[in-house]
Amino acid sequence: MSNIRQRISAALQTQRQQGRWRQQVVRTSGHGRLLAHRDGQFQINFASNDYLGLANDPTVCRAFVAAANEYGVGSGGSALISGYHHLHHALCQQLAELTGKPQVLLFGSGFAANQGVIGALIKQGDLLIQDKLNHASLIDAGLHCDGHSVRYRHNDLDSAERQLQRQAAGKLLVTESVFSMDGDQAPLNELAKLSQQHQAMFMVDDAHGLGVIGEHGLGASCLEPNIDIYMATFGKALGVGGAMVAAEQDVIEYLTQFCRHYVYTTAMPPAMAAAVSAALTRIVDEPDLVRSLHQRIDFFRTLAQQANLAVLPSTTAIQPIMAPGNDRVIAIAEQMRQRGFAIGAIRAPTVKAGQERLRLTISASHTAQDIENCVAALSDIMGRMQEHFE
Ligand SMILES: Cc1ncc(COP(=O)(O)O)c(C=O)c1O
User: Fold this and answer.
1) Residue of the CA atom closest to atom 5 of ligand 1
2) Domain Aminotransferase class I/classII large spans what residues (predicted)?
3) Has domain 58-285 been given CATH number 3.40.640.10?
4) Ligand 1 closest atom vs CA 243
């Protein structure tokens, strides 16, 4: 056996032994309020990033299908060779207007955008400063970049400032707007100010903010104008897939030339750009959609607190409930599944060991009854579990 094969089998064994095994569940329905699985079971979907229910929205689907019928299903090339279509261009203009930034680049995924931007911007002698709880795509970008990468304590301005005081040729501070596993928000105004004071560029990953926070849900750029590099994904509240980076003209031109994750990859299908554009238009034209999401979040939190569930202080669509221990968190999620609710069981390494949690997400497509039933089931299961694990 080669060393690589030995390592593979050892890693798989450890993963199983530590209760960290992950696997796909085959879904047979579209992604919406209800999920159907191959075993014929249905669950109400509290495990989604489709916060506004747009993944299956008829208007968004029609835009996708119409563009695919007219222009085909693939872009056929990278953006700088032959893959850039007028639907990409139109989406970039829509996004530039929305974020108040002069220019926008589209990426195949948020993971690629974060890796690409940081790899292109951070060079030897530079300092990348990030929140400790940033997403894996940002943390990994820091590990692989040419400069020095440091982290500050989660949402801690003193800790961020201590890192900003380090000497470096160039500095980039990066935070998420809404943290993906905690649902809490970064102090964007203060971080922007600190970045300016220390001549650092300020980058925000708004993956879980666009469609949820800011005026009419239009994201972090409504809350803080001094974001130098604004990144968001289209696979969460917009319900589609792909990602964007918005910034001043020079930065976007630089990324267009030097960002390898932009240059050396197939452009997203034009039909996807049409679908993203339709999703954005729905959010802008129908503010009730975002309003109804927030009503449901408030309703969930009121019920969860009444039921004494250990919900974290989040006012976004991500509503984690702490349930430390791999066995415990998996057992609760499995019992919820049996009762007809899909929820995420989050374990290490996604979160620190000992901070295992249920990740529930609220969607505008949930009914009040869905939320009531979900909280009642959780409260019952977690109450019984308490006795079992104590
Ligand atoms: C904060 C954050 N950034 C980036 C990403 C990656 O985005 P994408 O799913 O488009 O690759 C995610 C997705 O999980 C995320 O939660």
Assistant:
1) 110
2) 43-378
3) yes
4) 10
- Write down the pLDDT at residue 242: 98
Phi, psi of 72, deg, nearest 5: 90, 180
Q: Exposed e or buried b for every residue in 194-229, given b needs 16+ CB within 10 A?
A: bbeebebbbbbbbbbbbbbbbeebbbbbbbbeebbb
Pick the CATH number of 21-50+287-389 from 3.40.50.720, 3.30.457.10, 3.90.1150.10, 3.40.630.30: 3.90.1150.10
Instruction: Sketch the domain layout of the chain as residue ranges.
Output: 21-50+287-389, 58-285
Of all protein residues, the one whose alpha carbon is nearest to atom 4 of ligand 1 is 110
Is residue 293 within 8 A of residue 158, CB to CB? The reply is no
Q: Tell me the C-alpha distance between 149 and 202, whole Å.
A: 15
Picking from 283, 221, 278, the residue whose alpha carbon sits closest to that of residue 246 is 221
Number of Cβ atoms within 10 Å of the Cβ of 67: 22
When pLDDT is cut at 50, 70 and 90, the band that residue 253 belongs to is very high
Active site residues: 49, 135, 176, 180, 205, 208, 236
Residue 178 is given by DSSP the state B
